[in-house]
Amino acid sequence: MIEAPRQQPPLLSLRGIHKRFPGVHALKGAQLEVGPGEVHALVGENGAGKSTLMHILAGVCQSDEGTIDFNGQFNVAIASERAAQQLGIAIVFQERSLFGTLSVAENIFAARQPVRGLGRIDRRKLFASTQALLKHVGLEHVRPQTALNDLSPAQQQMVEIAKALSLNARLMIFDEPTAALTDTETRALFRVIGQLRQAGVGVIYISHRLEEIFEIADRVTVLKDGEWQGTFAVSETNPDQLVSRMVGRELSLHQRHTDVVSEGQSVLFEVIGLNDAESFRGTRPYLQDIHLKVRDGEIVVLAGLAGAGRTELALSLFGARLRASGEIRIRGNAVVIRSPAAAIAAGIGYASEDRKEAGLFLDMTVAQNVVAAKLREFGSWWLDDRRGRSVAEDFRRRLRIATPGVSQAVRLLSGGNQQKVVLSKWLLVNPKVLIVDEPTRGIDVGAKSEVHRLLREVAGKGTAVIVISSDLPEVLSVADRIIVMREGQIAGELNGAAATEEAVMRLASINLKE
Amino acid sequence: MPETTTTETEKQTEATAKRGKFPAVSRELGLMILIVLLPEALSVMYPLTFRPYFWTGENFAAILRNLAFEGFLAIGMMLMMVGGVFDLSVGAMASMIGVVTGWLMKSAGWPVPAAVLGGLAVAALGGFLNGFIVAKVRVNALITTLGTMGVFKGIALLIGGPGITFLPESFTRFGQAEWLGLQSPVWLLLGLALVAHYGLAHTRFFRQYYYIGSNPRAAHLSGINVERMQMLAFTLMGMIAGLAGIVYASRIATATSTLGDGKELGAITAVILGGASLAGGKGTIVGALIGVFFMALMQNVLIIMRVPSEWQGIVLGGVLVLAVAVDSVMNRKQNR
Question: Would you call B204 and A380 a contact, using CB atoms and an 8 Å cutoff?
Answer without folding.
Answer: yes
